[in-house]
Amino acid sequence: MPYLVVLGGGESGVGTAILGLKKGYEVFVSDKGKIKDKYKNVLKHFGIDWEESKHTADKVMKADLVMKSPGIPDAVPLVRELVKRNIPVISEIEFATRYTDAKIIGITGSNGKTTTTMLTYHILKEAGLNVGMAGNIGDSFAKMVAEEEFDYYVLEISSFQLDGIREFKPHISVITNITPDHLDRYEYQFEKYIASKFLITKNQLSSDYFIYDADDEVLVGWLDKHPIQSRLLPFSLEKIFEEGAYTSNDEIKITTQEDTIEMMKDTLALEGQHNVKNTMAAALAAKLVGIRKETIRECISNFQGAPHRLEKVLKIHHVQYINDSKATNVNATYYALDSVKTPTVWIVGGVDKGNEYKELMPLVREKVKAIVCLGLDNEKIKETFGNVVDLLVETYAMEEAVKVAYKIAERGDTVLLSPACASFDLFDNYEDRGNQFKNCVKNL
């Protein structure tokens, strides 16, 4: 019986363990930290061997195959030793893809991938296709493959998940954009991060498709130097294509070999120019799998959007509170500030991933009246914006940050939580941070 070791007892790890067991592996789950009770209960239910708070090297090194959870860097000594011994180390996405014949739409990018994934899934599901949504969102892909029989998967995939692929091949791949993010995992080399994102196209053939933002110089520059096999379908707010998606006056045009769909911009449920692009990417993917024009139009006009992404929480005393906790990098916060039309009290901060805040400077000068820092280390934010805004306050808990923002904000203002940073200094994750924000606002 082949021996599968799963490093990490979270969503992707436990999903892989279940699928591995079903496919005839002896499975061992090892987590250096604590495993959450809900995952322990699942492992016990399936009778899967596990350990927490340590990695027992003897047990790990006996593996025929290792699935490494995306949160574990390649550089850790245990992973290096496995590679040195020629024990294959793969990602959950790679493991799961070996056990499904479903058509896969794989979506990655620094920003917009969750919204694009959810919208694509929404269109396919409403059109009546037998489709699952997984990856970096919701259930793990491996767990779905173990328990369901879908014809299509829409997968949100992070660069960390792509780093461990060998044969993974989506029929349709999407890169929404590439901006510096997670550089701490890529030795602070932007080129390595770009290469990681483009792994989504690595195994594609000429019968497959690649949808991408043709306004993104990073994407276009990489494609010029590294041609890929799949058929290119660009989208743009500035250029016009024979095949792809573009805007003309107030219209969006989605063109493939079959025909063209035309939609008015003002019918889109999602606001902001970046969401025009997310919609173009999702509509192109939906058109490639044969969804009817009417269904696509209808779905993009009634889509609710992703939680924690420019989510309007409440209006209190004519002040709008917006939860954009999912903005874990500078580029995401750029979109948020760009979409706000009123004077803004901006709640920002957390774990800095090598952020360069200067690109936000024009928007901060134009729109931000006060900054509320929410993080354990706010030095970089203070250095960058201290002389730019009239008021900068440091806080160390969400309740405190929201109360301070409430005192500062005046009629007609917006209070925007858009941290531009990871959440792990004060919160479990960005969802926890966003939920705490919403609760604190509701308690004002």
TrEMBL record:
<feature type="binding site">
    <location>
        <begin position="109"/>
        <end position="115"/>
    </location>
    <ligand>
        <name>ATP</name>
    </ligand>
</feature>
<keyword id="KW-0067">ATP-binding</keyword>
<dbReference type="GO" id="GO:0008764">
    <property type="term" value="F:UDP-N-acetylmuramoylalanine-D-glutamate ligase activity"/>
</dbReference>
<keyword id="KW-0547">Nucleotide-binding</keyword>
<comment type="similarity">
    <text>Belongs to the MurCDEF family.</text>
</comment>
<dbReference type="InterPro" id="IPR013221">
    <property type="entry name" value="Mur_ligase_cen"/>
</dbReference>
<dbReference type="Pfam" id="PF02875">
    <property type="entry name" value="Mur_ligase_C"/>
</dbReference>
<comment type="function">
    <text>Cell wall formation. Catalyzes the addition of glutamate to the nucleotide precursor UDP-N-acetylmuramoyl-L-alanine (UMA).</text>
</comment>
<keyword id="KW-0963">Cytoplasm</keyword>
<dbReference type="Pfam" id="PF21377">
    <property type="entry name" value="MurD_N"/>
</dbReference>
<keyword id="KW-0133">Cell shape</keyword>
<dbReference type="InterPro" id="IPR036615">
    <property type="entry name" value="Mur_ligase_C_dom_sf"/>
</dbReference>
<dbReference type="Pfam" id="PF08245">
    <property type="entry name" value="Mur_ligase_M"/>
</dbReference>
<keyword id="KW-0131">Cell cycle</keyword>
<feature type="domain" description="Mur ligase central">
    <location>
        <begin position="107"/>
        <end position="286"/>
    </location>
</feature>
<keyword id="KW-0436">Ligase</keyword>
<keyword id="KW-0961">Cell wall biogenesis/degradation</keyword>
<dbReference type="InterPro" id="IPR004101">
    <property type="entry name" value="Mur_ligase_C"/>
</dbReference>
<dbReference type="InterPro" id="IPR005762">
    <property type="entry name" value="MurD"/>
</dbReference>
<comment type="pathway">
    <text>Cell wall biogenesis; peptidoglycan biosynthesis.</text>
</comment>
<keyword id="KW-0573">Peptidoglycan synthesis</keyword>
<feature type="domain" description="Mur ligase C-terminal">
    <location>
        <begin position="308"/>
        <end position="421"/>
    </location>
</feature>
<keyword id="KW-0132">Cell division</keyword>
<protein>
    <recommendedName>
        <fullName>UDP-N-acetylmuramoylalanine--D-glutamate ligase</fullName>
        <ecNumber>6.3.2.9</ecNumber>
    </recommendedName>
</protein>
<dbReference type="InterPro" id="IPR036565">
    <property type="entry name" value="Mur-like_cat_sf"/>
</dbReference>
